[in-house]
Structure formats: C-alpha cells, structure tokens
C-alpha cells in the first residue's frame, strides 16, 4: 500500500470515527429528551431501549476505530 493510500484510508477511518461520535451525542441527547418528556411512563422505556442498544453498538464501533487509529 502506498503512503497516499495509507493516508486516504486513515482519513476515511477518522471521518467514520467523527460520524460515530456525532451520532452518539445526538442519540444520547434524544434519550435525555425522551426521559424528560415521558417521565414515569412505560413508553419511555419502549422508546429508549432501542436507542441505548444503538449507542452501545456505536461505542463498540468507535472503540475498534480508536484502536486502529491509535487514539487510546
């Protein structure tokens, strides 16, 4: 792999990492808003659980990229 290809690959991974960070922040904010708006409602859990599952997957994906990019 040439140096340019290596830099392109790293750049793509960094952009993916940034996208994951943005998605995690946005989803975390949604969870916060749902919990505020649906306090003490069974609908709250029904809405929040899939979002929390997605946040967990995003964190796993971020960890893999962080390791590849030596961000840890």
Task: List the SSEs and their pairings.
Elements: H1 3-37, H2 42-68
In summary, what is this structure?
The chain is mostly helical and 72 residues long. It contains two helices and no strands. The chain has one domain.
- What is the number of independent domains? 1
- Give me the secondary-structure category: mainly alpha
Query: Mean pLDDT, nearest integer?
Result: 94
Computed over alpha carbons, the radius of gyration is 17 Å
Helix content: over 70%
Distance between the termini: 24 Å
> How would a crystallographer describe the biggest sheet?
none
Low-confidence stretches: none
> So what's the overall shape?
rod-shaped
Strand content: under 5%
Q: From the structure provided, what is the oligomeric state, counting identical versus distinct chains?
A: single chain
Structure description:
The protein is mainly alpha-helical and 72 residues long. It has one domain (3-68). The protein has helices at 3-37, 42-68. It starts with a helix and ends with a helix. The mean pLDDT is 94.
